[in-house]
Amino acid sequence: MSQGSNFSNVLLIIAYVMLGTTLFVLVLVFCARWFDWYLSIAEHSASLLISCEHCGAPLAFKGQNCKSCGEPVSQPVLKKYKLRIWAVSCFEISFLVLITGNILYASIPFVLGLVFGGYERYYMRITKGSKDPKKEA
Questions:
Q1: Looking at residue 136, what is its pLDDT?
Q2: For residues 68 and 54, what is the distance between their CA atoms, to the nearest angstrom?
Q3: Category of 70 on φ-ψ map: left (φ > 0), alpha (ψ -120 to 50) or beta
Q4: Running DSSP on this structure, what letter comes out for residue 70?
Q5: DSSP 3-state assignment of 14?
Q6: In terms of Cα–Cα distance, which of 120, 98, 93, 118 is closest to 35?
Q7: Chain centroid to CA 120
Q8: Which parts of the chain sit beneath pLDDT 70?
Q9: 61 CB contacts (<8 Å, ≥6 apart)?
Q10: Cα–chain center distance at 11
Q11: Residue 106's domain spans which residues?
């Protein structure tokens, strides 16, 4: 009798481990899909504000090429685009946290969004100031 209950307990433990592993994988897949969806929304809202320097279309690219014209995007525009995505993402997260009513927790991503926005302006001021002096002359 004791051996049958031990075998039953071992099978029950194995079943719980399998169930826990399955739930863990499902949660990871759900979080990855949600994060991918969230980044696509942030990319779309940030791309409305930045346009390609070659064709003038709103930036939407994979890698370092513009999706509409296929031309490579310069490094300053690429960095500006990435900083803008981070700033927009932080503002969206602060809005989502503010909906829950946690104003203290919502202030953290809001301040991060301001920092990313400020660094973007600072970076663009530096890149505009360091243009080729031969072109300005």
A1: 46
A2: 10
A3: left
A4: -
A5: helix
A6: 93
A7: 16
A8: 1-4, 42-49, 59-63, 128-137
A9: 67, 73
A10: 42
A11: 2-136
List, as one string, the DSSP characters of 29-67.
HHHHHHHHHHHHHHHHHHHTT-B-TTT-PBP--STTB-T
SS3 of residue 89 by DSSP: helix
Residue found by looking up tokens 């970076």 in the block? 123
Structure confidence at residue 118 (pLDDT): 85
The pLDDT assigned to 74 comes to 76
Residue 115 tokens read as 């920092």
Residue owning tokens 């104003």: 103
State how many domains the chain has. Answer: 1
Contact between 49 and 84 (Cβ < 8 Å): yes
Given this model, what pLDDT does residue 137 score?
Answer: 45
